[in-house]
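Chapter review: from sequence to fold.
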Amino acid sequence: MVIAEAGQSWLIFWGHFHPMLVHLPIGMFFMAGILHFFYAQKHTAARPIVVHMLIWTSAFALISAAMGWSLAQAGEYDPGTLQIHLWLGVSTCVLSLGLTYIMRAGLNRHLTNSLFILGLLCLTVTGHYGGNLTHGSDYLTASFPAPAQKMLGIEKEDVQEAPKITNLKEAVVYTQLVKPILTQRCISCHNAEKQKGKLRLDAPNFILAGGEDGPIIAAGKPLESELIKRLLLEENDEHHMPPKGKTPLTENDISLLHWWIQQGADFNKKVAQLPADEKINAILKSYTQAEVAMESAVFKQSVDAADEADLARIRKHGLLANPVSKAQNYIEVNAINAPRVTNKELADLRSINAQIIRLKLGNTGVSGEFMKEIADMSLLIFLDLQHTKITDQDLESLKNLAYLESINLVGTQISDRGLLTLAKIKSLKRVYLWQTRITEKGVAQLKKNRPDLAIQSGFKGQWPIEVDSAQLAFNK
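The token string follows.
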């Protein structure tokens, strides 16, 4: 039995080289086809080169097919799609071998051309089904523009956009908070076509069923739930999820999953039906658009539209610069796609200072020097500087912002000294301060100075959950 299991493990191990090696025969076959159709038919001296390319293509195609078969033994893929991909791959190998023989024998040119075309088509379809197995059945069509999807009659049956949260208390926790997290971070490896660890996370019944090691959720016991335990492991741990190279879940994502499981992992309950502490309430609020409330005095102002050339220049740096509403000319700038942006690139924001009311520069290279530029954004309502190099002294520049309502300083070096500055910003309504250098004494003083201010200072312990990942025991 042990020998059989060891043999199975070695098969699957070698199978994991299939995605890497398979691209070699694909590229060689296409190059052989291009050389054949556009050069070798007129220059007979080039035909031996095509033959040699086909010989190597056939050899690597056979090896790739064997590795693909080995990978299939893991049982992580949809059997129907897998069989189609398998036999198309075998057919491609046979066509490649047939072409090698025919070209070496110098047989009918029309037959050679026909087999080349058939081989290229077969290779394309094989690759398509391979993509389905790896990325899901809509990996190609999902990015089609809407008009093209309509013209081709493409309907997205199972992929639905997460409902926007307009009433937080009435939001269904699983549907509107948990499911979007799983869809963005986990579904690519745990779906109908691909089930790593024989686990699917695309529907409640599959989540409850668990994977090859059993259930992944223990309702009411997050730290005994496989889902949470693997998220909390060190990134270098081979059992950490998602695996290295994939985009990890954020701190807020993990906290929400932990909270949902702790409160029973119910698939139908609403936010109002589940108890939540200060930390969770702060995270939940971030899922709404409440931070830029339309009742803000800013919306009584009137500003000219930003110049399109200025917006285009800003977007070249990877920054998102989008209108807040169709009715007004206010702009939200977000650096989520530009983590390496620095003060130098951000200097281009000067041209739209008058229109910016939301500025999100979290996890970027922005430093204190740019705070003087932010001070010129006179209509700024929301400012996100989490995980940047901002210091207490840098906050002094913000004292004259008349409309600033919310500031996120999570993961910065802000201390109690910086809280004294924040207290002077009279328009401020919310401040996020966990993972900073502030003390309980400093927070107490800020609450005393500004009893009207909502202060989210997190909690003691390791973020996002107070647990030593080295102590976690889980199924291996």
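Two observations follow directly from the output. The longest strand covers residues 356-360. The first helix runs from residue 2 to 15.
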